């Protein structure tokens, strides 16, 4: 029997879905705990307010689902997701975060998260998401799913994706906009990210393309067909 079959079997037999809650805000933890009632088929096996606590509790309790915030005080929630899934592949991670930033969303998906909801989601949506994830499914809120789809549609149509295979989807998008003549601040506004995040992406791009400055990066990008029409793609608008 596979892990997925096992989870489905436990649910069908009436066993409670075991859940580990990870968030550094006590009031939010209280609200989540109160929402996941035993009579509704849930059992909260632990609560953590830091990455270290989350890793330790996950190893000890091996829950079916970890509900994970990304804003932890001692480590990135993305790294925590990757660690939890690596330590116990049978555990599913549902991200529940204040952040709607595309970088966090894509990073969570790459880390292996089975779902991503924003904290404005209602109780029934969260409960439904936990049940779906426990059964081995994937859940993304309507707005999140729409943004994912538009992002990957734009990526699939973008030139240069095969020329620069080492670049992440976001780095390729930044490079395209850079080649289209936008400065760092304009790129930040276009992608709804901070100037600092743009600069971090550009630094990574320089290293991966083995160029020393922006001018060299733009030449490489335009030779590959990026940014040459003067109207860079706008997948997030």
Automatic annotation (TrEMBL):
One of its GO terms (molecular function) is DNA binding. InterPro entries: CheY-like_superfamily, NreC/VraR/RcsB-like_REC, Sig_transdc_resp-reg_C-effctor, Sig_transdc_resp-reg_receiver, Tscrpt_reg_LuxR_C, WalR-like. SMART domains: HTH_LUXR, REC. Residues 18-134 form the Response regulatory domain. SUPFAM superfamilies: C-terminal effector domain of the bipartite response regulators, CheY-like. Residues 160-225 form the HTH luxR-type domain. Keywords: DNA-binding, Phosphoprotein. GO terms for biological process: phosphorelay signal transduction system; regulation of DNA-templated transcription. Signal peptide: none annotated. The modification 4-aspartylphosphate is found at residue 69. This is Response regulator. It comes from Streptomyces sp. R44. The lineage of its organism: Bacteria, Bacillati, Actinomycetota, Actinomycetes, Kitasatosporales.
